[in-house]
Design brief:
mainly alpha, 2 domains
Length: about 280
Amino acid sequence: MESEKSSCVRCGEVLQGPFCYSCGEKRIGSEDKKVSHFLEEIISSVFVADGKFLKTIKLLITKPGELTRSFVIGIRKEYLSPVQLFFFANLIYFIFPIISTFNTSLEVQLNQLPYSNYIRPVVESYLAESQLEMEVFKVDYERTSSSNGKLLLIILVLFQGLFLKLLFIKKKNLFLVDFLAGSAYFYAFYILIILVLFPGLFTLISKAVGGSLSLIMYEVSLSIIFLLAIILYMFILIKRAYDTSNLGAIWRSLLLGIYIIPTFIIYRFILFWITFWMVL
């Protein structure tokens, strides 16, 4: 029994401590198999991660582009990866969906988007053939759309990463993965700060003043803040992460600010079809 404990179960090397010097495997004891230890590891990996989490969030907010710059030059272990941070932000948005930017109601899909006239007859034809009431279909559709909306956010990261690559097509030392990283960090910021924190604070302020802020003022104010924040954040991110001039960062950030509008429309179009096929 003692020999089993002193040998690595993976490669058979003699253990000099809790970890194998050859393959890195840890010796598992009874303490490691407790549920409490399992939960501790989950909490540690998500929220502590050897200090990575707080350091990453701090840089994401205070130094736009620094995380992407570190990724580009090869500093990876010090911070959460772009994918980790993006999916963490996605989780927070799932728990606190203050603004439904990435989940579009059936009413909006059928009546308020550029492609609405194209998809409305499809839905109407399906309802006529299946003899299903619109309200019944709407409930199923919006429940499914809410789940799909969170999962399909990765599409926006891919779209923006590809567009960034196009904007820096002459920089041969930068690769697509470098721009995908910048895009993932940007959307993590967008979700955590613009879609969760800002609206949350705005709502609290509105309640503090007795709810006197009208819905129109709420939407207009947030739209202006969102647009300015996106352009400013992308300007700093591009300048710091991809080592470009002020002028180069300005025109690229402005183009990205404009580009976000059609990408959201395309995202919603894809969201509609995937959800529609799932509820058939």
